[in-house]
Specification:
The complex is a heterodimer. Chain A contains 10 helices and 7 strands. Chain A is α/β, with parallel strands linked by helices. Chain A has one domain: Thiamin diphosphate (ThDP)-binding fold, Pyr/PP domains (Rossmann fold). In chain A, helix 4 packs across helix 5. Chain A is globular and about 50 Å long. The termini of chain A are far apart. In chain A, 56% of the residues are buried. Chain B is an alpha/beta fold. Classes of the chains: A alpha/beta, B alpha/beta.
């Protein structure tokens, strides 16, 4: 007898059309978020705040109340939502352009204040929606439309390691970096998202998950090659791991 | 700490009156960042909101403060921020979003000297910023302009009500003089009905289908429909909510138009005119948007000249000219920045202009 090993979460809209590029990890990340919301039973008490970029379309996929924030301001708006309604489950979903660049102040200060919200940030080392420009997470040597000869330190400076920075903030209860390059790592990613959500539900402080993700279109790569790049290049610099977890001692 | 007294006259700064009225209006969340000359609002709120179990956040920037306000408003609670001039400039993007989101954001703008950092003297230099909007796209914010500390309180109530009723960001446009001066003020109970927001607020999908509050409109045709709807709202506002004060305009040859703290000295100057036999009238827009275009147009049939008096280089004068549409001349008495010109100075300039 056949065993069902996979199903589309009930929290995914039935009429949702897949709009991400082929090979883009956003689809997997959104599905993991949907699964966690469903499994924790919080979906009908959730208010999501979406950042600008490819990530904003999460509200087209997940059947939940959502607020769209100006670029970089999703964490500020989520702070407002949570302070107004502390009993609601509140999370932000945004890309690295939104969170790590224009919204870095909002993210760090929410972490410092220990806002009881969760932020999911997709790190694909580029500004995806605008066509692949150099962003705050673009890797040294990486060619983008605005670093045509590759990112060099003298001209462009260094990329930011978000999970480590957010972990340093005293109000952060959980900070992790995960990858979606293999089935095993997708499982770990889901565990991290779930943990981050549980940390919020327990009211322990700010929780943050950085998800290493592909952008095959802007990287000019096939989905396979893009995942190889995640493994061979990104994970070497942006090391996956749990950087802070107040529920466990000595992380 | 000033108390939330009702039905008792107290001596209070304008900034405290605004904050106190906001608390009495049922404001559940305040988000702010310090800037002179409005910092007393945040100072008052920090203690009072905590005491009442409501929310106060000392935001990392004005960008964050106004966006936190948007977030809180999206859940249907009354929320506000306050700031001044160069920092209100930072909030313009969010105000544009909030009009498209149709969220009842209340922002108190206590004007100081500009442009740029300017100075902390009173000014009316942000008339255009407030009334025309400094953000992108076609939108308007409701703008209320108090001229006394009592009105600072009364119009704060009204700002919350109109914001809720019309689901549109509303600015209380005060200035450094009103914010810092003390006058007797009496706080009544919040006089307006509560507006039902159960049809749109975000609360999770327990009792409704998923709601998305967003400003993204990918299709041009849909956007056209939305903008027409938005501007129908502004027409309704003009028909129903335009407010002004006028004195002695029935037989006036010249009508002085002024708003906010400046209008106080203009009122005195108009009295001086009357004493000298000059048939002068006084006209004070209380809602700067919607602007009392219709009434000014009517008056232009009987009045020979309008003179606006402003503490800026001449901003509202443009709107008076548009309202009057060339029927009679519209002159300007102005001072770039600082306390309003003395009544005697205004009177003298009126004499020269008529």
């Amino acid at each position: 007898m056949a065993t069902q090993v996979f199903k589309i979460p009930n929290t995914i809209k039935k009429d949702a059309k897949f709009t991400f590029c082929p090979g883009c990890d956003h689809g997997v990340a959104v599905r993991l978020v949907a699964e966690c919301l469903e499994e924790l039973g919080v979906i009908d008490n959730t208010i999501a705040v979406c950042g600008i970029g490819c990530s904003v379309t999460i509200y087209d996929f997940i059947d939940m109340d959502a607020l769209e924030a100006p670029h970089g301001r999703s964490v500020a708006e989520a702070t407002g939502v949570k302070r107004a309604k502390p009993d609601k489950f509140v999370f932000t979903y945004s890309g690295d352009g939104d969170y790590a660049s224009i919204g870095l102040a909002e993210g760090m200060h929410a972490a410092l204040r220990g806002e009881k919200i969760t932020s999911i940030c997709i790190n694909n080392t580029t500004y995806g929606m605008t066509g692949g420009q150099l962003g705050p997470t673009t890797m040294l040597g990486q060619v983008t439309t605005t670093s045509p000869t590759g990112r060099n330190i003298e001209y462009y400076g260094y990329p930011i390691k978000l999970a480590e920075h957010i972990a340093l903030c005293d109000g952060t209860a959980f900070s992790a970096r995960v990858s979606l390059d293999t089935v095993a790592n997708i499982k770990k990613a889901k565990q991290a998202i779930k943990k981050a959500f549980e940390v919020q539900l327990k009211g322990l402080g700010y929780s943050f998950v950085e998800i290493l993700s592909t952008c095959p279109t802007n990287w000019r790569m096939t989905p396979d090659k893009a995942h190889e790049r995640v493994q061979n290049e990104m994970m070497q610099v942006f090391k996956p791991g749990i950087y802070k977890d107040v529920t466990v001692e000595n992380v | 700490m000033v108390e939330c007294l009702t039905n008792k006259k107290v001596l209070m700064k304008g900034n405290y009156a605004i904050a106190n009225a906001a608390v009495l209006a049922g404001c559940q969340c305040y988000f702010g960042y310090p800037i002179t000359p409005q910092s007393e609002i945040g100072e008052f709120m920090s203690g009072k909101m905590q005491e009442l179990g409501r929310a106060y956040v000392s935001a990392e920037s004005e960008l964050a403060a106004i966006n936190m306000t948007i977030g809180a408003c999206s859940t249907g609670v009354k929320a506000m921020s306050s700031s001044s001039s160069c920092a209100v400039a930072l909030m313009q993007e969010a105000l544009s979003y909030a009009t498209t989101d149709e969220l009842p954001v209340v922002l108190v703008s206590v004007m100081r000297g500009g442009p740029g950092l300017g100075n902390i003297y009173p000014s009316q230099g942000d008339y255009t910023q407030a009334v025309k909007g400094g953000g992108n796209g076609d939108y308007r914010t409701i703008v209320l302009a108090p001229s006394t500390v009592q009105e600072c309180a009364d119009l704060t109530y009204k700002a919350f009500y109109l914001a809720q009723k019309y689901r549109n960001p509303t600015i209380l446009l005060a200035d450094g003089l009103l914010g810092q001066m003390m006058e007797p003020v009496e706080f009544k109970e919040y006089p307006y009905p509560e507006v039902d927001n159960s049809s749109w607020r975000l609360s999770g999908t327990k009792d409704h289908k998923a709601r998305i509050i967003r400003s993204y409109g990918p299709l041009a045709d849909d956007r056209c429909v939305f903008l027409e709807k938005l501007f129908d709202k502004y027409k309704k506002l003009e028909e129903n909510e335009t407010e002004w004060e006028e004195i002695g305009t029935e037989d006036a040859d010249v009508v002085l138009v002024s708003f906010g703290s400046t209008s106080r000295n203009v009122k005195t100057a108009v009295k001086m005119c009357r004493e000298k036999g000059i048939k002068a009238g006084f006209f004070r827009p209380i809602t700067l948007f919607p602007f009392p275009n219709k009434r000014l147009k009517e008056l232009s049939k009987t009045v020979k000249k309008f003179i606006t008096v402003e503490v800026n280089m001449g901003q509202m004068v443009d709107d008076v000219r548009l309202a009057v549409n060339g029927v009679v001349p519209v002159e300007l008495i102005h001072k770039g920045v600082g306390a309003p010109p003395d009544p005697e100075v205004i009177f003298k300039q009126i004499e020269e202009l008529i």
